[in-house]
Design a protein that fits this description.
alpha/beta, Urease, subunit C, domain 1, TIM Barrel, eight-stranded mixed β-sheet, 12 helices
Amino acid sequence: MGSQQVRIKISNGLIIDPANNIESKHDIYISEGRIAAIGKQPDGFTVDETIDASNCHVIPGIVDLRARLREPGLENKGTIASETRAAAASGITTLCIPPDTTPVIDTTSVVELIHQRASEAGYANVVTLGALTAGLKGEQLSEMALLKKFGNCVGVSNALSPITNSLIMRRAMEYAASCGLTIFLHAEDEGLAGNGCAHEGAISIRLGLPGIPETAETNAVSRDLLLIEQTGVRAHFCHVSSANAVQMIARAQYDGLPVTADVSAHHLHLTEMDIGYFDSNCHVRPPLRTQRDREALIDALATGNLNAICSDHEPHDADAKLAPFSETEPGISALETLLPLALRLTDDLSLSDVINRLTAQPAKILGIDAGTLSVGEKADICIYNPETNWILKTEDMLSAGRNTPFAGWEFKGKVMHTLLNGKVVYTNK
C-alpha cells in the first residue's frame, strides 16, 4: 500500500480528543497510517503533505454504533461502497452493522464477504455484530464462539427480531457471557408493539395510526435487565426512545450492572409532532415519542446514562416511503446528519462531551481501538469547520437512500477532510 506511506502534517487545527482530555491547538504528524506525534515534529520526520486545518476542529474519526449498509441482500437500497462513501464524507471512519442482512450474519462466510467489500471500497472500517440466534429466528442459539473467533464479530444481536421465549434469551445471554461477547438489545415487546407505526398517544389517535405504547419498550427493558443481572452478560441497549426506559437503565448502571445504552440522533431532535400530516420520513422504529421523552434523552446523554449517539442509518429506495404511512418502511438515511445533529446539542452538553459520545464512548462499547487521537493509534481523523453553514438537500446526499426528514434544515458544521488509516478518503471540494 504505497499510498499509505505518505507522511502528513495536519496544522493549525483545534484538537478535540475527549479520550485524552485534549482541547487545544496542536499540529498532528502522521506516518505509516498512524499518529506519529502531536505538537512537536518528530526528529527526522519529513512532511509529504500538509492539511491546513485553520478554523477547523480536528477530532477522532466518528464511530457509528448502528448503520445498515444494505449489502448483502438489499443492494437496491444501498451498497457497502455507496454507504461507506457517504460515511467518509460525514467524518465517520468506523461503522458497526447489525446482523439482519440477507443472508443473516450467522456464519463467518457472510462476515468475510462484508469485510472484503468494505476493504475493496476503502472508505471506512466496518465491524459486524453476529446473530444471537440462528437466522434471527429466536429459536436456536447461533455459533457465537465461532463468529467471534473466526469472524471477528464485536458483539451479538438479534437485530429487530424479538426473542419472545425468555428461557432462550437467558441461554443466549449465558453463552454470550461465556464468550466474552457484548449483547446488543433492541428492547421491544412484540405483543405490545403489534403492528404499530407511531407512538401511542394523542397524535397517533388524531391521525388514526396504530400506536406503539411506551410499555412495549419498558416491558422489554425490564425483562432484559433482570436476565442481565442473573447471567452477568455485558449488554448494550440500542436506540432507547423513552424517558422511563432511560430511568430503568440508569438505575441498573447505578446498581453496577454491566449495561450501556445509545440513542439515535433523530430521537434527540424530533418528536411525534413531526409526523405532521403523515410524513413517512418520520416513520422510524422505535417511534418518535413525546417532547418529555426527547428532553429526558438529552438529559440522560448529558449525565452519561446514555453513552453514545448513533445514526441508526437505514437507507431506502424511493418506493419504500411512498405508501400510506403505516405501510411504509421505517428508517432514516442518517449518516450525513449524524455529526451536524450532534453539534446542535451544545446548549445541553459541552462540545467535548458531544464528541465523546460520537468517538471514544462507542469505540469502548464495541471494544475496538478507535475513537482516539493517541500517539501510535491508527490515524482515523475527522476535520470539520464548525462555522460553515449549509442546507441539507436530498439531491446532494451521497447515500443511496434519500429518505430523511431533515431535508431543508440548515446545519452548522461541515466536514472538510476525513482520514482513514492515515489516508485522505474525503476532501470537501
